[in-house]
Amino acid sequence: MEGNNNWKYLIKEETVSGLTTLLLDIKNNHNQDELIEKIKDLETQISKLQKTKKYWLVWEMEKEPEQIVLDCQRKLPILKEVKDKFLKSDESWKANILIEWDNFHALQVLNYTHKESIDLIYIDPPYNTWNANEWKYNDKYIDDNDTYRHSKWLNFMSKRLTLSKELLKENWLIFISIDDNEQAQLKLLCDEIFWSDNFIANIIWQSKTWSSDAKGIDTITEYILVYAKNKLLPEFTKNADWYDKKRYKLRDEYFSERWPYYLDNLDRWWLRYHDSLNYAISIPDWSSIFPNWRSEFLNDGWTWKWWRQKVKWWLENGYIIFKKSKSKNNWWWVYYKNYLYSDNEGNLLERWTPHKNVISNLKTWDGASSIKNIFWFHVFKYSKPTELIKYFIKSVNLPKDAIILDYFAWSWTTWHSVLELNKEYWLDLKFIICTNNEWNICEEVTFERIKKVSKGYSNDKWAKTEWLGWNLKYYKTDFVEVENVQLIDDKQKLELTYKAWEVIAIKEWTYHEISKTPYFQFFENNKKLVWIYFIESSKWMDQFKNTLKQLSKSKNESVIYIFSYSEPEYSCKDFNVPNLRIEWIPEPILKIYKELNKKI
Questions:
Q1: How far is CA 169 from CA 154, 196, 398, 566, 591, in A?
Q2: Which residues neighbour 588 within 8 Å (Cβ) at sequence distance 6 or greater?
Q3: Exposed end of the chain (fewer CB within 10 Å): N or C?
Q4: Which is nearest to 292 in space by CA: 301, 311, 271?
Q5: Domain map of the chain by residue range?
């Protein structure tokens, strides 16, 4: 320690680092006078720190650790398909994914299958209200008698938000519904996880019009916090909902370009009358009409709004419409169309405003009613309306085949919204949803909702909705038991490889199994072929290569997952197959699980 003058530890900035360094010095230092001096200095810094005003979120993290998280130190989560719940709506190779079980386990698996692959996340977590039976922590319902309920909620949310951040692509967003019970804490938590610089908006949603039990000031709003992984990268769409829908409500064959329109009379009375605007227009009954329903030229002060050449162009391009009078024989009304995105010269307009952080035209009751239409009774008193989730998705310029994730999908509103958007806008959006099965809600409510909506359902005694399609794969989490996730023996590595084949199929979007032997397994979609080679041995490799060569001829891409205790020696040249990619298992899966367990 002689000559070392750098032993003042900046506890204020780096408390843990300072204490760790101090303890190391204490272990190696035998000069008691110097130790006493260091301890006094440390006490002085602690005293200053206690008097300093702090601005960060602090909660009791270790008062009661979450058991599900602790279990992952000795359990490796995998996914197993529930085959009798496969929903097949068409013959395509595409499928959406439902994962039933705790979302912490699901997010761990998705960190292997979909790391930096998700385009948008929407979640509706428990609000941590004073209501009993709302949410559980360590298998116990949290109520207002629990003095650590805020800490438990933050502990619960911080781990899941940390895991889900890794799933987002660099240029996309997460939307989080919340109310006043945890909004302030959640904002600080998200500032910490996603960084405050990536905060986009706190959307205020008027979720109801009034409360029957309100006293003093009636709370009728909830919030949606919006964060980006990188605030500079997301592209927002034009706000298509800014205009007056009661006025611009008519559509025609030009809607995709000109958008909706309203009608206005083509003739009018002018103070500045001019003969050039007083002329005959041919109408559908092959006669002619002058302004003010006249059948002949007359100066009564009435004219057409535009000159003859312009009206002729309007007639040829669908801007004029004729309507026969219901009250007067042989009378015709002549209207022109005022399009939202086209002026009277036929030029397309750029009319739009930014999306606002206030939503007032959608209510919780709309969501509850939507679900009631499906089941014929009220399943949920509070449920987000599909139009709300659709608005969030439409607010960003997502790719047509974007992947949407919801890992608090108890009512499946996100899934329903995605399917409706696919149908309305000819998109190819995919979804991954995760939920537990508390009170059999996944099997008896959410899964039933997707069945009904996918295939079409009767929403009253006479009407049947149109089917929304898409296939669904239903998975539950399973586990490979280990003593310590950081120390996996060879037998457990092989067990993980055999059990992880469905995880690999999800990662590659290849759900159709061709064949399986004790030594290798094959999957495919319409463009890709995937193999898993289970044995670290050359004994079966020749047979494997021959099968691979035959099956790969009809595919654009081939992928081999080779089991190995260490990095495999094979390369693409060893297989003589075009467009081949080789992956190693199970070490990349284990590496992600180990890193996640250290991080949380």
A1: 24, 18, 11, 30, 20
A2: 112
A3: N
A4: 301
A5: 67-240+356-476, 255-339, 482-599
Instruction: Quote the CA–CA distance of 600 and 597 in Å, as a whole number.
Output: 6
Instruction: Report the distance separating Cα 407 and Cα 135, nearest Å.
Output: 15
Q: Give all strands (DSSP E) within 117-236, no chain letters.
A: 118-123, 136-137, 140-141, 168-178, 199-206, 221-228
Q: Are 73 and 484 in contact (CB under 8 A)?
A: yes
Residue among 123, 119, 167 at smallest CA distance from 433: 123
Average pLDDT over residues 295-302: 87
Question: Is the confidence at residue 455, as pLDDT, over 70?
Answer: no
Q: How many angstroms separate the Cα of 456 from the Cα of each of 55, 95, 452, 570?
A: 52, 18, 6, 50
Report in angstroms the alpha-carbon separations of 271 from 268, 274, 301. Answer: 10, 9, 7
Backbone angles phi, psi at 348, to 5 degrees: -75, 140
Nearest-5° Cα angle at 197, 192 to 198: 85
Distance CA 402, CA 448 (A): 25
- Side chain identity, residue 570: Y
Check if the beta carbon of residue 482 is closer than 8 Å to that of residue 76. Answer: yes
CATH number attached to the domain at 67-240+356-476 = 3.40.50.150
| pTM score, whole prediction | 0.76
Q: Amino acid identity of 31? A: N
∠ CA 59-64-69 to the nearest 5 degrees?
100
Measure the CA–CA gap between 597 and 594, rounded to whole angstroms.
Answer: 5
Q: What are phi and psi of 178, to 5 degrees?
A: -165, 165
Quote the pLDDT of residue 372.
43
Rounded to whole angstroms, the maximal C-alpha distance in the chain is: 117
Enumerate the H helices of 318-444 as residue ranges. 364-375, 386-394, 413-425, 441
Mean pLDDT for all residues in the chain: 83
**Tokens 């997952």, residue?**
561
Phi, psi of 546, rounded to the nearest 5 degrees: -65, -45
- Chain CA centroid to CA 246, Å: 30
3-state secondary structure of 541: helix
* Residue 386 CB coordination number (10 Å): 24
